[in-house]
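Our platform keeps sequence and structure together, in a single record for each protein. Such a record has a labelled line for the sequence and another for the backbone structure tokens. Nothing more is needed to write down the fold, since each code stands for a local backbone conformation. For reference, a complete record is included directly beneath this paragraph:
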Amino acid sequence: MKPTSSLDTLHESYLRKVRVEKRLVLSVQLIIFLAFFSLWELASRLKWIDPLIFSSPTKVWHLFLIKLADGSLAEHIGFTLFETVLGFILGTVLGILLATALWYSTRLAHILDPYLVILNAMPKVALGPILIVAIGPGFFSILTMGAIISVIITSIVVYTAFKEVDTNYIKLLKSFGATKTRCFKEAILPASMPAIISTFKVNVGLSWVGVIVGEFLVSSKGLGYMIIYGFQVFNFTLVLLSLLLIAIFATIMYQGVAYLEKKLIRRS
């Protein structure tokens, strides 16, 4: 009984340390958050910074309440969120499908390899004006911007993960007569799941960038439109409100992906 009791004590001690560490990290994060906004407010009131350009948290909060009351904010947020989530899903799915095609066909991988490198190095944001001319200004050009910005990087990262799976697993499966599709389902895809989930996290930020740039160029609503409109009328409180909302919703999306990661890893 003594060894078991000792192990229980050690385990309990370990869990206590983990809980204390989590509380410490959360406390420091909260202090940084409060210190940032307090310093911002103070600096604006005492005019250490230009209140016209940098506004203040109280002005941003008041504008938030006004926009919320007149209903315009919900429309802008809903529009951008819809485009971003759809662009994220499209970019991620297309990137994984392309990586799968490359894994299935070595010849295709050899042919496309230099083009993927070139496309990855190219600033996708610069394609915005071309897409607008080709597709037309509107929802689909913004959606394409949100998707295209993450397709290439997703396919490169996932395809690299596919190639790094231990070849002994594949040889073992093939020795039992497994087809290439079965090898993919039984070994390649499960082993590459951590890399795929990592691309989800990267794509959250990329999709927001693509959609916001698209809204800069053509949209008449959305958070990107609010930013560009704020610049045009010199209303930097509106710009900062839009940026803070983007930060909040991007964080919520990221936490959603992190939650999905925990669920998938626990299941595997």
